[in-house]
Amino acid sequence: MLKTKFHDYTDKISRKIGYIFSKITLPPNAWTFFSVILAIAGFISLVHYKDMLMGFIFFFISGFFDAVDGAVARVTKSVTKMGGYLDGIIDRIVEAFLLIGLLFLDLPGFFIFGNFIPSYFWITLLLFFGSALTSYSRAYASQKRVIVSERVLDWMPGILERTERLIFIGVGMLLYYGNPIFTTYVIALASILSIITFLQRVYFVIKYGVKK
Question: How many other β-carbons are positioned within 10 Å of the β-carbon of residue 19?
Fold first, then answer.
């Protein structure tokens, strides 16, 4: 949603980041590699050390480096289809490290209509709908040539796309130090919004896609 609604603003920021980091003589894929290494460090912080703050810091820097690789590629005019493919794959891997890492923290669950819903239910739901199906719905529409225009694909709606989803999770991780249940509440809300996003995209494809 942020990328779609504020495209000009986010593009301007991306170009500034790309210009700054292009001064460092590293190829864009190197920044992608650093992003994975930091995500692994964040995963270890959550799983082994049970340290939410360190996990947040590592994943935050990982997310920043993930933005750097594409920004540098655009500024240096070294954008490639393979680079875009690898970037998308790494995005899913990093997000999986984050969400699976949170599973090991034994976050508290809460009751809905008298039924206890454990935290791992919401994390699994977010992993499935947020990280997997929202991306899959777009990629499959392109693969099946239901939507053939890249421009139309770029404007596919979503109330909670990857950037917003990671912001939600990051806020939830920080709220952990107020009360761990707040982290679960944020993840639960992100899960629900991810389901809505998936449904938005399916509706968009049905409405604007090729019917034959």
Answer: 14
Supply 156's token pair.
Answer: 């596919």
> Average pLDDT, stretch 137-146?
93
CA atoms of 71 and 14, how far apart (whole Å): 5
Rounded to the nearest 10°, the torsion over CA 7, 10, 11, 12 is 130
Tell me which H or E stretch contains 112: strand 110-112
Joined together, the tokens standing for residue 173 give 């991780």
97's CB contacts (< 8 A; 6+ apart) are 39, 40, 42, 43, 59
Please state, in angstroms and rounded to a whole number, the distance separating the CA atoms of residues 2 and 17: 17
Q: Which letter, b or e, does each residue of 170-197 get, where b requires 16 or more Cβ atoms within 10 Å of its Cβ?
A: bebbebbeeebebbbbbbbebbebbbeb
Instruction: Kindly indicate whether the domain formed by 1-105 is annotated with CATH number 3.40.50.2300.
Output: no
pTM for the model stands at: 0.91
Alpha carbon distance 124, 109 (integer Å): 13
CA angle 26, 94, 121 (to 5 degrees): 170
- Compute the distance between CA of residue 23 and CA of residue 10 in angstroms, rounded to an integer: 21
Q: What is the Cα–Cα distance from 199 to 167, expressed in whole angstroms?
A: 21
pLDDT of residue 151: 84
Given a contact cutoff of 8 angstroms between Cβ atoms, the answer to whether 109 and 118 are in contact is: yes
Domain parsing of the chain, residue ranges: 1-105, 107-212
Q: What is the pLDDT of residue 95?
A: 96
